[in-house]
């Protein structure tokens, strides 16, 4: 398994790049975001990677961040989403935007990527529910609640009870605003449950 490359960028194209690591050139595929962040040819690069082995090919995918790699892994776990389709999605949506789109069930947002139709976008939104929640947590709760660890735990508790992410985050946000930053987890969960039940 090749998990990381650190070397010199030889060239970058529309959908990938070649990185020289001690005399060996590794061809990698990457999202347009990762490619846009690369230095000019000859510059030093460090990329996280994911190796996919198939009968007919070994393909190395590269990422500029752990969040992007984690989103790629989640996406390729959905039936019908291969590595290239996952990169197309990550070229249009960064990990936070993808998490928010999945959390809200926004199929249209996911379908903006090349090669993703409404049916596949719906499957992605459904299968990844609750699996990409953490990057969007701060955005969902708002800055004050996100700083409060109890609010994050309360959100997780409501999600585990079966509340949809949007409902859970609205209830926890309202409870957080009412109780203030010093609220305990127990108090937050109780009030959030009452607010969600209304």
Automatic annotation (TrEMBL):
One of its GO terms (biological process) is DNA repair. Residues 1-64 are annotated as: Domain I. Residues 146-198 are annotated as: Domain III. Residues 1-61 form the DNA helicase Holliday junction RuvA type domain. It comes from the Bacteria. Keywords: Cytoplasm, DNA damage, DNA recombination, DNA repair, DNA-binding. The keyword Mitochondrion does not apply. One of its GO terms (molecular function) is four-way junction DNA binding. Pfam families: HHH_5, RuvA_C, RuvA_N. Residues 150-195 form the Holliday junction DNA helicase RuvA C-terminal domain. It is found in: Cytoplasm. The keyword Lipid metabolism does not apply. Belongs to the RuvA family. Homotetramer. Forms an RuvA(8)-RuvB(12)-Holliday junction (HJ) complex. HJ DNA is sandwiched between 2 RuvA tetramers; dsDNA enters through RuvA and exits via RuvB. An RuvB hexamer assembles on each DNA strand where it exits the tetramer. Each RuvB hexamer is contacted by two RuvA subunits (via domain III) on 2 adjacent RuvB subunits; this complex drives branch migration. In the full resolvosome a probable DNA-RuvA(4)-RuvB(12)-RuvC(2) complex forms which resolves the HJ. The RuvA-RuvB-RuvC complex processes Holliday junction (HJ) DNA during genetic recombination and DNA repair, while the RuvA-RuvB complex plays an important role in the rescue of blocked DNA replication forks via replication fork reversal (RFR). RuvA specifically binds to HJ cruciform DNA, conferring on it an open structure. The RuvB hexamer acts as an ATP-dependent pump, pulling dsDNA into and through the RuvAB complex. HJ branch migration allows RuvC to scan DNA until it finds its consensus sequence, where it cleaves and resolves the cruciform DNA. NCBIfam families: ruvA (TIGR00084). Has three domains with a flexible linker between the domains II and III and assumes an 'L' shape. Domain III is highly mobile and contacts RuvB. This is Holliday junction branch migration complex subunit RuvA.
